[in-house]
Queue: 2 jobs
Job 1
Amino acid sequence: MIQPFLEHGIIRQAIKRNQISVSTIDVRSFAKGKQKVTDDKPYGGGSGMVMKPEPLAGAITSAKIKTPESKTILLSPQGKPFNQKLARKLADTGGLIFICGRYEGVDERISSSLIDDEISIGDYVMTGGELAAMIIIDAVTRFIPGILGGENSAEKDSFENGLLEHAHFTRPRVFEGDEVPEVLLSGNHGEIENWRLESSLMRTLMKRPDLLKKKPLNLSEIEILKKWGRNIEEILRT
Ligand code: 4FV
């Protein structure tokens, strides 16, 4: 599952430029016996299978030997929610070892002894942790200096300033009768910046008011929200 992900776009470029390296370890190669069993029935009964601790411990230990400075992360629905802030934090580590579970999950004794962190990409259950690992690799890689190329940086991303990103437009100037906002063609960077801030605030207010409620607002943001509040009150008065 992982290989194709490494052969496209920014991830492929980052690997080619040795800005990141991604390797995979097959847990089965650490399983004993000719059957190379990596999972077994759950103690206490119940449906599904659980990943056995021994093959996992062997695989994790071999990864830690290769990159001792790495943080070991178990992907699971029980983990802390993954978000942009956590992505930035993970980008400042010396390396990451991802444990991708399958079946019902991994034996709990792995979590308590060999795992530095447990992360969830969302409150839903997948068939395996591989997709979660790829999502985190993708979001973290964007923070590595020089990855996004040119003046493009993760600084201007959604969530960076606690707001959703402003609306984006490109050619043609008119699409199906819909024109690009005039200010964006004005070349007046001050006005463009202000338009973009209002666009971010409005989109966040409409789509993710929860983000606005937990974000410390700066003066210009407060001014804009108050202006909208006054307009709404005036509308309600008439
Ligand atoms: C998951 C998540 C997730 C649980 C059982 C793999 C599955 C299976 N991982 N965020 N949500 N994992 O659903 O990270 O082993």
Note: DSSP finds nine helices and seven strands in the chain.
Job 2
Amino acid sequence: MAHFNGRFIDRIVVLTGAGISAESGIPTFRDAAGLWEQHDPMDIATPGAFRRDPALVYRFYNARRANLAGVAPNSAHLALARLQQEFAGEVFLVTQNVDDLHERGGSRQVCHMHGQLGAMLCNSCQSTMQAPEAFDALSACPACGGVGSLRPDVVWFGEIPYFMDEIALQLGNCDLFIAIGTSGLVYPAAGFVQRARQRGATTVEVNIEPSEVTGLFDYQRQGPATVAVTALVAELLGQ
Ligand code: APR
């Protein structure tokens, strides 16, 4: 168990966004050099975009997979893995990120609500399987042999995120909700702070700058994730 600002903490929910992976060399979406500054998300990350120009979408996600292979988890990922291993209570980690840096940082439980870059989905047999570093419209589905039916297993705009029932359950039972490196612009994740507050949880935002929902948090820890998350975890572990 832990105490946080005088409150007894037994169950923690941690939400992460692109900001936690920024210092590993993965661009965020909406910062100055972010992915959505270089591409219109409506041309890349919607089912309609995939129908209109699958080659562009395949190229985009193949490039992200190649970039991911060249980076490593940072001390914020490592700190969260330590919290999960050493905290006597429960820690539920949900991420909007499609990278695997939490797992490579040692986290055994990671809920990928927006899917994973390392996975692909077949639109004809509905199988989900590990993705090679690159695939496209000529690639055959390893499960059904279908050609041109594979897509990145990433939740696109207009699609329903994964694991929403489990996430709602965890938010409904936590004492402490921590949001790290997310802009608070994309729902349903941006609404998690409200849900946790409604159930009486204490809420903390970690970000290099105020997000769109900063005012909804009880506490703000402003700074780069590698510094602010490491310090917060040390505090929760009483170190
Ligand atoms: N440390 C902490 N926070 C950081 C850092 C850092 N080093 N660098 C950037 N940030 C913060 C920014 O201030 C911003 O608030 O991370 C946030 C990144 O915001 P976005 O780029 O909007 O990313 P995110 O909130 O994860 O996007 C949500 O939108 O495009 C969709 O599906 C995609 O999961 C994504 C969702």
Note: The chain has a mean pLDDT of 97.
